[in-house]
Design a protein that fits this description.
Structural class of chain A: mainly alpha
Number of domains of chain B: 2
CATH class of the largest domain in chain A: Mainly Alpha
Structural class of chain B: alpha/beta
Number of strands of chain B: 14
CATH topology of the largest domain in chain B: Rossmann fold
Radius of gyration of chain B: 22 Å
CATH class of the largest domain in chain B: Alpha Beta
Strand content of chain A: 5-15%
Helix content of chain A: 55-70%
Strand order of the largest sheet of chain B: 6-7-8-3-9-10
Shape of chain B: elongated
CATH architecture of the largest domain in chain A: Orthogonal Bundle
Helix content of chain B: 25-40%
CATH superfamily of the largest domain in chain B: P-loop containing nucleotide triphosphate hydrolases
Number of strands of chain A: 2
Order of helices and strands of chain A: HHHEEHH
CATH superfamily of the largest domain in chain A: Winged helix-like DNA-binding domain superfamily/Winged helix DNA-binding domain
Oligomer: heterodimer
Strand order of the largest sheet of chain A: 1-2
Largest sheet of chain A: 2 strands, antiparallel
Shape of chain A: elongated
Mean pLDDT of chain B: 90
Number of domains of chain A: 2
Number of helices of chain A: 5
Low-confidence stretches of chain B: none
Largest interface: A-B, 20 and 27 residues
Chain lengths: 133, 299
Amino acid sequence: MHSSSELLISQADGRPMYLQLMDQIRRRIAAGDWPPGHELPSIRALAADVEVSVITVKRAYLELEREGVIVTRQGKGSFVASGVDLGTELRRRELDEHLTAAAQLALALGLSSEELEARLREIRDELAAKERS
Amino acid sequence: MNAPALQFDGVEKSYPYFKLANVSFELATGQIMGFIGPNGAGKSTTIRILMGMVLPDRGAVRVLGHSMPQEQALAKWDIGFMSEEMRLYGYATLGWHMDFVAAIYPTWDARYAATLLKRFDLRREQKMKSMSHGQHMKSILLLVLARRPRLLVLDEPMTGLDPVARHEVLSELMSAVTDETRSILFSSHHTQDVEQISDQITFIDRGRIIESSDKESFLDRWRRLQLELPTGLQLPVLPGIVDVKSAGGRLAAVTTNAFTPALASAYQEAGACVREIQHMSLEEIFVAEVMGSRKEIVA
């Protein structure tokens, strides 16, 4: 009965539980642990395993389906979508989210696009320098 | 669609200092309902009516397809009830209690009972009077679960349990509903537990049901908006606002129980800057809801 998906919900994480679940499933797929075509645990099995309500898992699966990350076949279960290089796509989406947050902050601080770009370049160079040393 | 596991329809009950007014809600088969509300809100009275222990003045209650309290003898074969006030016989062992319950209920699952003994870290030979509060509660829960009832009704099952014991109990409740024909109604002050495992939330305050809906949409409607206002701008009055916190300066926190993206746009259009839209935990919603309705009464 305990499939042990090793997904984990944290109560210290401020985000709703369904978002946490989505995030961890995406990461598992991006890392290649769950390759395209891999069958996801059934909703009730995952709910029992992670100890969250069935409705929360249902919602996470539904949203992932909407994103095209997984597909659900009636009566058969849910599977990782056979998309092209989902890993890169997911990481790119993650990058976009962070960039959006950065752009919002820059707007609030009244930074111009040039200033934001310059700052981004600086940070990249710092990282590269660190890697070399 | 299956018949609901339980159904309250316009139930009323008056006492000299308390009234349960027009209580209606239902729990779909296969779901877990968290039943929450402040002390004295009417949770226990509602549960007593559900169990046929109190006769309502008006209204209808159906449990597992049976009318209560008329058909309670039938219904109770399939209901597992536990309340924090229950006590087992102090001089008898847990094993004695297990044999006793097994002799009455043909659905008793001895193998499951043995598994639960291990998971709850309990011993058959131990007398109840030598058990801690947590062990006592887990023993009662073991006796209830091993009957494999179709409906579990648990009144504050988590009270006084340490974090490990609570985790063990939550985990067993979740396993109990991997079978879609079983349902659970549990009341608790532990909003984190309720938020974690409930499919539905029913909120009662001062004898009235304030809310009974699926957990995801319930939590989704509540948000806190952190706003920054240009100097001199009055916060516009918009519908669905439960609470406004502002020190009179430029920052304000607005709580809503009817969030839509349109609300955020409305604030933007009025000239306010929406700094952040935050989700709220059930605990925060609980407090906001109860404080909000108390303010109305005072006003």
